[in-house]
Design brief:
single chain, Immunoglobulin-like, 2 domains
Amino acid sequence: ESDTASEISFQFNRHKKTPSIGSHSSDMASVSSVSGSVLSVYSGDFGSVDAQGTVEFALDYDEKNREFQVHVSQCKDLAVVDEKKGRSDPYVKTYLLPDKARMGKRKTSVKKRTVNPIYNEVLRYKIEKMVLLIQKLNLSVWHNDPLGRNSFLGEIEVDLASWDWSNRKLNWYPLKPRSLSAVNGVDHRGVMNLSIKYVPPGSLGKMCPRNPPSGEVHIWVKDVKDLLQLRPSGVDSFVKCYVLPDTSKKSYQKTRVIKRDTNPVFNHTIVYDGFHTEDLKDACVELTVWDHEKLTNHFLGGIRLGLGTGLSYGISVDWMDSTQEEVAFWQEMMSAANEWIEGLLPLRSL
């Protein structure tokens, strides 16, 4: 793959509410196929109840099986979510931070109609001890809602680097409220340095040999600073790019892998043509940074460049969720045709 420029034709059908893909592309994937894989750990309802009560658990590391074990015993005096019925249906969920997507979540079963649930379950992670020691354990308690609006009941965060691994006994810990920064998903994942440009159809003049018959969006991924270091040797990172709502191979592009560097320089340019000016309000450029490993790639953070309206071609979509900084960056590009707009944008959970 070239690290200078790669060009992808991207066609929209503006007569329909959903975009169509060119004849040489693969079938269009579900719009949630990319964004749904990296849902935030912080999804849920935080404001309905106050955190209270305690949780009993123990931590252990099985050297033989290279397995981290969280023995969740029970909780006491949890908050009541449904005050009319006087009930809560609690379960416990764990993540290894800072990279929630890499190790994934583990959770216990749901215990219904109780504020004193007993679990006696072991949540397991296959992970090397040296990697584990640069993580934090986030253990939280939630009320399970059949309609999916789960309520946060409290949490505890453990710095595993300072944990006493000789302590394998069950101990009680008070549940704490979620901090405001965590509720807003403010977790530092690094900063992307990039430039973008929109070239409207026919705007370069008839004499220009490369005057596009349709509009083009140019994306110049320069570098990323301060990535999460998942291993002592560093991180082997690359950047993926999609123009949503298209998640097919037609839209997909990626940079080369930069090895053992938390401040990788990519200097990679992508050109998407087939853009008409009216498409800019409905499309979204998703750039995500990944750690490359042989068996699977691990999400490090990303940005979404668009208007953040929640709608695409009249359809409600969860990926049209750009932050104020990302929206301002996209709007500046829309208002300054044929000009490179440069910016530094923080990576985030998507």
